[in-house]
Amino acid sequence: MHPVIFFNSRLFDLAHEPENPHNDAPGKLLLDYVRERFLLAPVSEPIPEDWGWCGFVQNGGRSYMLGAILQPGDDGNHGCIIQLDKQRAFTEKLFGKAALAPDDPVLGALLKLIRDEPAFTDLSLNT
Question: At the top level of its lineage, which domain of life is listed (predicted)?
């Protein structure tokens, strides 16, 4: 399972979004927001990727990658996308072990953070 969380927000001013050296995909402001408020474990400094921005979280001896992108809205109501990936060994993937589950604490904490922010609307989760 690689859950993708979608929501909308007017919270982010894209005029303050730093340039991504790989493409014009904003998302650092979204990851900065998560970094400042994620209580379960520290989130690394966001790094640019060719598809957006990512950060990492360590929890329970596992590493998780948070991928983020903002889809600019003409009216300032931006689409926000966060994907969560739990890193696993090749053999774990091969035998279906240690997969990210719906009750995963990192996923739960991330969803709580998003649900608790009144400026985030139209939340949906694709698993």
Answer: Bacteria
Tokens representing residue 46 in the block:
């966001």
Joined tokens for residue 23: 């493409």
Domain that holds residue 113: 4-121
Quote the DSSP letter at residue 102.
T
Q: How many CB atoms lie within 10 A of CB 8?
A: 16
Closest CA to 84 of 8, 1, 3: 3
